[in-house]
């Protein structure tokens, strides 16, 4: 369970720097009733992302799990490797196209009379089909063979990590006082200029951690010096 928590938290934090959610949040944070609007927006993002993941995990995921009711360690470790490689591939893409991506403006927000909660839910629903890091985490969670309740707990953890930047903006509005608007404007400027690099580094770190975790798991079942080394590395990563 602790191994999966580390995996889910790593991917969730790496996936949290999402311009599609952060940019609207930064926009809403400067308007009238900013804190209330941002809380509604964050709630909409969290609920839709969590429900989408839960439907996948408890629907198609459980159907696949019924075909392999007791996945062995090899299957679980292999899913960890797949999740890690997916993150590394995403990091490589972001880094390779960082200059082109940085020249794009962050998404503009046009609520069109919608409440902030509906806006957050709508943006998240549109983004969900391309949420590949989330799918990688869901695959690892379903492949763990844990009962549905603990799988849902892991999904809640992932989504808390996913909305951490939004919670940080809410905290800034709550505690920074008169300096809040200046601090948020500074964050937006830095995000506009550097978000591909920041996200690529986060994805790289998370991908390396998850890949090594799965690879050492696969190697640890072996014998000899390599298996011993893999078990020591895995014990260090997952005491």
Please outline the helices and strands:
Elements: H1 2-16, H2 19-28, H3 34-58, H4 60-67, H5 73-96, H6 98-102, H7 116-127, H8 132-143, H9 148-162, H10 164-175, H11 180-220, H12 224-237
Protein architecture, described:
- It is a single chain.
- The chain is an all-alpha fold.
- The chain has one domain.
- The protein contains 12 helices and no strands.
- Helix 3 packs parallel to helix 7 and helix 8 packs antiparallel against helix 9.
- The N and C termini lie close together (12 Å).
- The mean pLDDT is 78.
Characteristics:
single chain, about 240 residues, mainly alpha, about 80% helix, about 0% strand
Provide a quick synopsis of the model.
The chain is mainly α. It has 12 helices and no strands.
Number-wise, the strands total 0
What proportion strand? under 5%
Radius of gyration: 19 Å
The helix tally amounts to 12
Provide the domain count: 1
Model regions low in confidence, pLDDT < 50 over at least 5 residues:
none
Largest beta sheet, briefly? none
N- to C-terminal separation?
12 Å
Element-level helix/strand string: HHHHHHHHHHHH
Mean pLDDT: 78
Specify the structural class.
mainly alpha
